[in-house]
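Give me the 3D structure for LysM peptidoglycan-binding domain-containing protein.
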Amino acid sequence: MRSIPVPRTHRTARPRRTISSGTDVRPRGRLSRLGSVLRGLGALVVIVAVLVGIPLALIAVAGNPLPDSVPSWDDVTSALTEPDDGSLFLQALVWIGWLGWISFAVGLVVEIPAALSGRKAPRLPALRFQQRAAAGLVAAVAAVFVVGPVGVATATEPVQPPAPQPAPVTTAQAPAASEVATAEAAPAAPEAAQPATVQRTHTVQRGESLWRIAEQELGDGMRWPEIAELNYGVPQPGGRALDNTHWIDPGWQLLLPPEPAPSAVPVADTGATTHVVAESDTLWGIAEQRLGDGARYPELVEASRDTVQPDGARLTDPDLIRPGWTITIPGTAGTPPVVGDPVSREPVQPPPAEEPAPPPAEEVPPPAAEQPQEEAPAEEQPPAEQPVQPPVAEQPGDSDVGDSATQAVGDDVDVPIRTTAGVGALLAAGVLAFLAVRRRTQQRRREPGERIAMPAGALADTERELRGVADPMSVELVDVALRGLAADCARRGVSLPPLRIGRLTSEQFELYLADQAELPPPFVATDQGHVWLLPAAAGRAFDADELRDVPAPYPSLVTVGHGPEDGHLLLDLERVGTLAVVGDREPSREVMAALAVELATSPWADDLQVTLVGTCPELAGGLDTGRIRYLPTAGSLLTELSTRARHDRAAMAESGANSLDDARARGVAAAAWTPEIVLLGEPLGPEQDAQLAELVQSLPRVAVAAVTSGDGAVGQWSLELTAGDPDAAVLQPVGVDVQPQRLDQHQYHQILELLGVTTQPARPWVDPGGRPADEPEPSDVGPGLLESLEADLDRLHPAEPPALPVAEPAAVAPAAQPPSAPPSPAPVPGDGPTVLLLGPVEVEDAEGPVEQSKYRQLTEIAAFIALHPGLGHAALDDAMWPGSRVTQNTRNTAISKLRRWFGRDANGDDYLPRVDSGYRFHAGVTTDWDEWRSLVGDDPTLAGTQQLVAALELVRGQPFTGVNPRRYGWAEHFKQEMISAIVDAAHELAQRALRGGDAHLARKASTIGLQVEPGMELLWRDRIKAEHLAGNRAGIDDAIARMTAISADLGDDLEDATVRLIAELTSPAPERSGVPERL
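Predicted structure for LysM peptidoglycan-binding domain-containing protein (1079 residues):
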């Protein structure tokens, strides 16, 4: 088996093939693997020596460090004042040794549990060096003993692999679960109650791991130890057997546990089922979900006491259960499981698909046995306490399923990796990150009482579609993984590995190298060092904050398309030199547009130059990231690039770097690092082709690459588009089938218009005017500060209201309150659950049961209904499951679970009523945003000071934080409105506090506002004035430093008012009354 080949001759026709997680992957050779094992064992010896050996040595040399009695003050003074015979010095050395041991042991104690759990260890700033050393030792041990299960199936013989096919499972068919569940118990023949045990096997396919096989065959990757236990020492084809390295080879026959996947498994003789413990499960919660009463958890203990768990343990302590354990749920033979809420049964008929279900015919709720629950689907619905299963699996013939690319189920909804127009998850994440910076700048520049321009109509739909596919978490994984690799190379003094292709899936990030290289843990080597894998979970080992200042090692890595298993295929354009996009003119232009936009917004490129020649002229102005320039023709461009290449090669030679990778790793010849990627929209002439080939192929390579269009290719690499099928292409010379990433004309212009909205001026939201009745009178705080405050207040309260702007573009949302905004009068406080939006999104005071795995999804549905009362199922589907066709069963199950979670009021009425005109909550359900508006109203300048204080106490952070970045795409308008409202209220309260001489309140108000929008200079000026009023010079300096850093990050200059304030406060001239005079 080989890595992705790169022939040394010109491109020839090759049979197509695909890159999968197992393509060209095999174990590294015995010597390399032995080296990893020896390093791990050596690290383990060091850990044991540090934790055990050092304390024993110190005790042996100096005895017990703890004194027999507490020394008196006289003992201390005499020890310090009397002549020392050397004993005090030696004792001090001993204590230094103990302190050093404790500091290192703390780092190990923090790192070891993090490595075992797959979580990122908390940072210990005071023990940074010790923690870093401990992390290295733990990572070396984990690479041998922990990362093993992630190792992929590998080939040990150079045989031609068979054509890719689904992994076969050799097994005799067991009875269907439904048949087993309904089988009658036979008291006279106990053996009939036990189903026949059938030994199942799995034939290992290339690229598989024990984790993946457990996911496929057992339903949960955490169950891989069960497979391992069955197969240790079992002879396999080729003479090897599974050992504790957990390497597996294609063709092996692995024994599988006899039971099916870890979903509920009926037991024929008792009607019992099983439950596989998930993270954060408790026996009380399982009993509450599966038996309807948490107090019945002792029944689970008794039923599960004799079950041998995957780790060999048994359930003995009700307070101790581990993820992956199997809990037996007792039942009654012949009794069908209860469906739905144990208090009220669901009717067998589902509601019409067009609207939420009709209300009950009578006002008085019927008895529990008859009370309808409209959203419940027909008998196909699974028991309410079980995880929701995909409708396809439950209803094979369901006409609502259609041919959707993704099906929404559960909390972790499958999401597409590209829009319908071909925009991938990484490109979408880059565009949205740039859009977020633009909106922060909008918020920063608006005046109090104004609202930033936001998209509406088709542009808002485009933004929602981008948010539905964007994957910022994968973007961060690629960024920190590459920077972490670069940091390790710099520490070891070696060149960067010659990366050619990257492949990113939901499970791992794969690096395909041009030559063998040695990568550090947590990278896992395959194919003798040509291919390296980074499991997504292992990416948590990298510290993004520490790697922030590491130069980007592969800035020209860009997505060219998508392959099997929803994998992103990335190509390092610097490495390949040239890429020809071969195909018809319009599809080629779409591919080039996608390349240009992703390169311009890529977070793993600190700086690069994208030169567009004769294509996409609008990008230079519309996507002003500082990376794009446009030229109508090539002209003298190639001569300019040749001159740059000559200078770069001279700089590398002078610094002793033998390649660009070497220069970046060693931190020399920095002027040669910034790549220039040229995208040529028109074919070049023969002479220009030759000049370009000479430019990019001469050694040492320089940071210049070109993407050409037309029928020919300058170099070996090309993306051959299939005529008549815009979603098919072949990447040559590796012959890999890809779905090319492209940006068609419609979405291209939609993205540019979406970004254009951020350049439009803010618009007045309310008509400023009037003052609150309880505004404090000015106090004697100094003429300079009072003059500044009066100027600010004059701007807030002009003599005449500003004129409204003339006609706004149709694509911009009108300056109106979001559709859910109630009138200003305060609503009656609710007595039911509260949906919290002003910070992390949470639900308080919901008294019903909720599955932990459904909490986030149900919370989002609750937030959507609370902010959009009265909308029907179509709007809900579009918001919760964008890009998917949602079955009635899926939606109704979610609504039914949400209703049970929120519960009922004292009168027995559901907090989520059954209505015939859209979803809406009972009046007893409120949000903190409702409470905010009841306190502040539409204009904070008219609210009382106590109301402003109470409103700001509701703020727990920036609205809608702590959510999955792929969720809540519908909430962006509300988020920006809430940010504006909080900032304005914070500024108004800070102004009043400054006028009243209350520096503490002014500081508190400005701090809350800056927590929501850190770039708002108006609030920074309030903060600086508060520190000045308090006489806190250090506070002033800290605020100025932080404000300046944020401004630099946003690429914006400080406002004139801020510059004047800083100059006044930092002026060496004497001040009167301790305050600035001219502000």
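The two ends are 74 Å apart (CA to CA). Let me know if you want a second pass.
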